[in-house]
Write the C-alpha cells for this entry.
Amino acid sequence: MHRLLYIGMLCTCAFAARDWRIDQLERALEGRPVQAYVVPFIRIADRYRLDWRLLPALTIVETSGGKHVRSRNNWFGWDSGQARFGSVPEAAELVAYNLSSGFRYRGKTLRSKLHVYNSELDYPDRVLRHMLSLGARRKHVHRRSSTNGARHRVRSIRRFARR
C-alpha cells in the first residue's frame, strides 16, 4: 500500500506492484504541474473506463499541463475555462464522468467525443497527438477467474459431447 501526498490531498493507492503507467506518465510530464496528479488521473480514468492518457493530454492542450490556468482548478478548460472546482481531481472526476456517460458524449468514439468537447477542427488531432506522446498503450493481461474458466471448460465438454 503506497501513500502519496499531493497538494493538500492524501491518496491511498492500492497498487500491489507499482503501475507501469505511473512511471511512464511521470517521465513524460516531468517539469509540468500536472505531474503531481498522475495517480488520481489514472485511477479516475480506470473508474470511468477511459484511456489513461486522456486526462493528462487534455490538461496539456487546455492549460499546458497546468501552467496557464485561467479559472480555479479548471485545468481541462471545462465550460470554456469558466468553471471553478475545489480541486484538480474534482475537475478530473467531472470531466471523466461526462466523457464516459454524459448525454452529449455517450455512444461516441473518442475522436467524436473530443470534437464535441471542443469544436475546433484540429482539436481531436492535438489531443490524440499528445496522448501518443505520453506513451504507448500496452495491452493488459487479464486472468480468467476460476468460475469463468470453469464455464469455458463446461462449454468445451458440451461441444465435444455433441459430436
Notes: Residues 4 and 10 are 6 Å apart (CA to CA). Helices lie at 20-28, 38-47, 54-63, 88-101, 110-117, 123-134, 146-162. Residues 1-10, 140-147, 149-163 have pLDDT under 50 and may be disordered. Residues 18-136 form a domain with the Lysozyme fold (CATH 1.10.530.10).
